[in-house]
Amino acid sequence: MLRLDRVSKRYAQGHTALQGISLELEPGSMHFLTGHSGAGKSTLLKLATAMERPSGGRIFFGDQEITRIPRRRVPHLRRAIGTVFQDHKLLYDRTVHENVALALRVANFPRNRIHGRVQAVLTKVGLEGHQNKLPITLSGGEQQRVAIARALVNKPDLLLADEPTGNLDQELADEIMDLFYEFHQFGMTVLVATHDLTQPNRLDLPQIRLQQGQMAA
Ligand code: ADP
Ligand code: ADP
């Protein structure tokens, strides 16, 4: 599904964020990407979505080499990879339904099927009945569910999340991680970056450990 082959990333200022990263996510697998702040977790996720380019090595998504796809194909790639980033803000002047529907509109999804698709995904993330609310009226956990619905509504092949529970207390964090686990059980390939080391043990899932930009044993 996603394969990194000796990937490195050195930012313009000369800081090496990742070095010699090789890994493969099998279809349907779920992993946690763990490591201290600054270990390179976000950088790895940005490389996977072509938000950043690697300085060395190769990245494959299915049979396409991400680093070689033409710029015009990048939006297509991003629809195949659902992302829940910490800084993915919701549109606070739009309803929950509109926030999720927008992801379908920009993908030119058939207009007469948008409503049904949005309803279905909101139900899957446990937000049935909330579709006409503004995000500001929802709890932090519910807002994160809207972001997850938005990431999933285009039925991506891979779901990437960057510290999706960073602002939630432990109970809500567990609920959100359980939701990702549920999608994994339905066959979704999932990679969740977190510094919450309770999660891999709690869900009995493998970790990819980063330490100062390198794979840790
Ligand atoms: P994590 O997500 O594990 O906290 P990051 O991938 O955000 O780690 O950061 C890895 C390293 O790369 C850090 O030292 C960080 O300061 C540096 N870094 C991240 N983004 C940039 C950037 N845009 N420019 C320069 N350095 C960056
Ligand atoms: P596809 O079948 O290609 O995945 P659809 O938009 O036809 O996409 O359906 C997506 C989901 O939305 C399905 O689970 C379907 O049952 C549900 N759905 C379709 N139309 C409605 C509707 N009007 N109200 C509620 N759910 C709907």
UniProtKB/TrEMBL annotation:
It is found in: Cell inner membrane; Cell membrane. Belongs to the ABC transporter superfamily. The lineage of its organism: Bacteria, Pseudomonadati, Pseudomonadota, Gammaproteobacteria, Thiohalorhabdales. GO terms for biological process: cell division. The keyword Isomerase does not apply. It comes from Thiohalorhabdus methylotrophus. Homodimer. Forms a membrane-associated complex with FtsX. It holds the Pfam family ABC_tran. GO terms for molecular function: ATP binding. It is a peripheral membrane protein. It comes from the Bacteria. This is Cell division ATP-binding protein FtsE. Residues 2-217 form the ABC transporter domain. Keywords: ATP-binding, Cell cycle, Cell division, Cell membrane, Membrane, Nucleotide-binding, Transport. Part of the ABC transporter FtsEX involved in cellular division. Important for assembly or stability of the septal ring.
